[in-house]
Write a structure and sequence with these properties.
Distance between the termini: 59 Å
Number of strands: 0
Shape: extended
Largest sheet: none
Number of helices: 4
Helix content: over 70%
Order of helices and strands: HHHH
Length: about 120
Amino acid sequence: MIITGNESMIDNMLYVTYLVLAIIIALVIVFVVKGLFEGDIKKTLLSVGAFAVILIISYVMSSGTDLDLTPFINKGMDVSEATSKYVGAGLNAFYGLAIIAIGSMVYANIKKLIN
């Protein structure tokens, strides 16, 4: 639509997109809550707690000062040390969770080979 110059329907398409996204998020929340009550609540709470601990450790490990913010500020971007710290925490959490996932896959395969 943008390429052809017909931009009149873009707003309507965005509203449809937002509606579909809201429906999907609502369904995900419903099925997650349903799964919580059908499954073992103790294991679920332990998993959520472990994820929260990983996020807290990632946030504490990120400094937020290892980036020169001057070029971003000169371009008019709203980047602060807090933003840099959040990005660093997200990257640290991703790396930690990736290592845990890969480690658990390797452990499961080794355990299957031994048995």
